[in-house]
Amino acid sequence: MSGLTIRPVLRRDGPALVAAHIASRRMHFPWVEPFTDMAGFRAWFAQVGKGRKLSFVAEREGVLVGVVNLSEIVRGGFLSAYLGYYGLAGGGGGMTEAVGLVVAEAFGPLGLHRVEANIQPANARSRALVQRLGFQLEGLSPRYLRIAGDWRDHERWALLADAPVASAAVEG
Q1: Residue 30 is part of a domain; what is its CATH number?
Q2: For residues 147 and 104, what is the distance between their CA atoms, to the nearest angstrom?
Q3: Range of the domain at 140
Q4: Which of 29, 41, 46, 121 is most buried (most C-beta within 10 Å)?
């Protein structure tokens, strides 16, 4: 048993997340630009839990391992969300398990049908993570997301709740 858990991010996580993001800058570049000060945390946290975005911290024995977000959660006939995630320096790995736990939450208690991850094609580690969980490549979105001032291409990877691999990925 790995001892890894996920939980919703809390306001009190701000200082620890800021410190972890600063320590992880080299690891995150050029893939993500998380906040690195309390003003950034407050702006990010203000969007969490408003019904369209849920953010989780993954931790093991009190050490932050990473962050997993479900954003743009849509109900009704769509039942879908975007998935974003990143590990933290010193966390000791475990992001595949963390993302799997959040996907299980999405398909279980949240009742979603589809989870989509958009990944920069050169981000081999992130691509491998979703492949381990059974996500399927659906296509390329040119100039999809602006990161560090540049519009970046992203691959669309998706997993459906009723896909045979979905239950295996989130159970094991």
Answers
A1: 3.40.630.30
A2: 28
A3: 4-171
A4: 41
Tokens coding 135: 């996500």
Residue 63 has a CB neighbour count (10 Å cut-off) of: 16
Q: Which residue has the tokens 């954003």?
A: 71
Number of folded domains that form the chain: 1
What is the spatial distance between Cα 69 and Cα 16, in angstroms, rounded to a whole number? Answer: 17
Decide if 62 contacts 129 (C-beta within 8 A): no
State the DSSP code for 50: S
Which amino acid is it at 58?
A: A
Short-list 78, 86, 96, CA closest to 134: 96
Q: Give the list of residues 6+ apart from residue 43 with CB closer than 8 angstroms, or none.
A: 35
**What pTM did the predictor assign?**
0.91
Residuewise pLDDT in 10s, the chain (172 residues): 489 999 999 999 999 999 999 999 888 887 888 899 999 999 999 999 777 999 999 999 989 999 999 999 999 999 999 999 999 998 888 999 999 999 999 999 999 999 999 999 999 999 999 999 999 999 999 999 898 889 999 999 999 999 866 555 555 4
Whether the CB-CB separation of 169 and 53 falls below 8 Å is answered with no
**Rounded Cα gap, residues 134 and 101, in angstroms:** 14
Handedness of CA 45, 48, 53, 54 (dihedral sign): positive
